Amino acid sequence: MAALEDHRLYLFFTRDNGLFTWQATGTIDREVRTYREFLPSLAGIDFVTYGNKKDLPLARKLDGIGVRCNEYGLHPRIYTPLLSHWLPRFWPGPAIYKSNQVNGAEIMLKAANHTGAKTIARAGFLPSNISAWADGYDSPAAKHFRGLEKLVFNGADRAVVTTRAMAQTLESQYGVDPAKLRVIPNYVDTDLFKPDSKNRPANKLCYVGRLHDEKNLDALFDAIQGLEVELTLIGEGPLREHLE
Q1: What is the mean pLDDT of residues 225-236?
Q2: Which residues of 125-164 are buried (b: 16+ CB within 10 A; e: fewer)?
Q3: For residue 167, what are the CA distances in angstroms to 10, 86, 113, 133, 177?
Q4: Phi first, then psi: what are they for 42, rounded to 5°?
C-alpha cells in the first residue's frame, strides 16, 4: 500500500461552485488554510472546481495548490463526465478524492470508480435538513437529498461530518458503517479570534454567521432570557425578520 505522502488529494468543490465563489462569499482564506496545512504531508493537492477562467488568477495565490477548472467553458454535461478521464493525466500515482459538500459528491464517486482512487465524502451540513425545514420533510427536494446522502456516504471509503448528530443520522437513517464515520468539527482560527483580556467588554455576546434554522438561534435567545446581556447578530438569512 502506498504511503500517504505518495498520494495526491483532489478536492471536488460543491456543484456549480468555483474559487471565485469562495472569493465572493469571503471564505476563501478560511477554506484554503486547511489544505495548506495538509500539503506537506501529501504528494500534492488539486482543487477540482466548476468555475471558469475566473478561477485561474485566484489559483496563483494558493501557495502550491493546483486548480483544475472549466477554463474552456464547457457545458456541465460535458465537463463533469470528462473529469473521470481528465484527472489521471495530471497525476499517474495514487490519489485520494474528497468532496467539500454533499452536492457534487456523487461526481467525485463516479470519477473515483473510474480511476480507483480512495474517497472521502465530507459534509459540513446535510442539505436534506435544510430542504425539510424550508419545504417540508416529504418535499421533492428533501427526498432527493436524502437519496443523494445515502448514496454518497455509503459509497465512500470514509464519511466525514462536522457534528455527532450528523454522524448519528448517517448511521441510523442511512445505515452507514460506523467504522468509517469520522466527526471533525469546523475549526476556529484562534490566532485571529481570541479574547482581548485588556479591553474585553462585559456582558456582551456576538454571533457571526448565516441566519438560518440550522444555526438554532432561537435556543440562543432562550438561553439569555432574564440575563443582563447584550447580543449582537452579524449576518444575513431567511430568519432575519423573525429574529429582529
Answers
A1: 93
A2: ebbbbbbbeeeeeeeeebeebbebbbbbbbbbebbbbbee
A3: 23, 33, 24, 19, 10
A4: -130, 165
pLDDT at 63: 86
Cα–Cα distance for residue pair 39/66, rounded to 1 Å: 11
What letter would DSSP give residue 13?
P
* Chain centroid, CA 33 distance in Å: 13
In angstroms, the Cα distances linking 109 to 40, 158, 180, 209, 226 are 25, 12, 16, 30, 50
Give the span between the Cα atoms of 53 and 77, in whole angstroms.
18
Residues with Cβ within 8 Å of 38's Cβ and at least 6 positions away in sequence, in order, are: 9, 45
- Over residues 206-226, the mean pLDDT reads 90
pLDDT at 1 over 80: no
Backbone φ and ψ for 145, nearest 5 degrees, come out as -70, -30
Q: Which residues touch 7 (CB under 8 Å, ≥6 apart)?
A: 42, 43, 93, 94, 95, 96, 118
User: What pLDDT was estimated at residue 62?
Assistant: 92
Eight-class DSSP state of 116: T
Angle between helices 105-115 and 140-155 (to 10 degrees): 30
Long-range contacts of 170-179 (CB under 8 A, 24+ apart): 173/146, 174/149, 174/150, 175/150
Strands 95-99 and 118-123: parallel
